[in-house]
Amino acid sequence: MLQVSRLVKQYKKFRAVDDLSFTISPGEIVGLLGPNGAGKTTALRCVSGILKPTEGSILINGYDVVLDQAKAKSGLAFVPEVPSLYELLTVDEHLRFVAMCFDTLDRYEELRDTLLERYDLNEKRNHLVATLSKGMRQKLSVACALIHNANVLLFDEPMIGIDPAGAKELKDEIVRQRDNGSAILISTHLLDTAEKLCDRVIIVAKGRKLAEGTLEQLQHLSNREGQSLEQIFLALTEPEA
Ligand code: ATP
């Protein structure tokens, strides 16, 4: 479970995230949507413990990301927008290293084989990360997130750069993880994908939450019955002409 309460992240005087609160329960996929610069990546980086919040609290499975970092992070996996990988490890070594860090080596080999097969990285298992294509790096970053027992999963623009088969596999994987009880937060600009994949969305702009709910709830709240997520998103986020 992920609980974010009154999160503020300030870069000097600029508030990139401003009083953002939301909860994601086990078995939920939630989309974090917003125009460029809305504060999505900043919020995800705070949740993942990379950035220290200026104010507010973030609990992962009940553990505070700042005060109880190791316990909080043991349940968390983060797939960043730009993969951050160790170039001089092979694909296999990289996955093994992540499994070692999270103390999940006991089931490593079976899970590794499944993930390499699923993400079409089998042929590359003994190749250096430095030699992978952009999409392959993104797939490896996803595999690293899935190689340990996280039940809170964060994805920042996960489909970007992945081929159609990989993107389909990733969407199926996200649904599988949700059905196994994970709490999942996905930042994306792909509104069609968000509409199909997410149980609920949070729309942010200029660091603040504008709306949150299922498509039906957003349609109702904005008096736009029957409209698509894209139509509602644009109506909520585009400045009046
Ligand atoms: P996009 O959809 O373009 O990826 P985003 O919603 O993820 O955008 P962020 O990357 O979180 O937005 O940025 C939010 C705001 O914070 C932007 O105005 C950005 O310029 C600013 N910002 C981000 N990182 C820093 C930083 N290190 N120092 C100062 N300002 C920053």
Could you explain the architecture of this structure?
- The protein is 37% helix and 25% strand.
- It has 241 residues and is α/β, with parallel strands linked by helices.
- The protein has 2 domains: 1-75 and 152-158 and 186-241, P-loop containing nucleotide triphosphate hydrolases (Rossmann fold, 3-Layer(aba) Sandwich); 77-149, no CATH class.
- The protein has a 6-stranded mixed beta sheet with strand order 6-7-8-3-9-10, sandwiched between helices. It has a 4-stranded antiparallel beta sheet with strand order 2-1-4-5.
- Strand 7 (152-156), helix 6 and strand 8 (183-187) form a beta-alpha-beta unit.
- The longest helix has 16 residues, at 164-179.
- The model has no long low-confidence stretch (mean pLDDT 94).
- The structure holds adenosine-5'-triphosphate.
- The site of adenosine-5'-triphosphate has 11 residues, from strand 2 and helix 1.
- Residues 11, 14, 16, 34, 36-42 line the site of adenosine-5'-triphosphate (ATP).
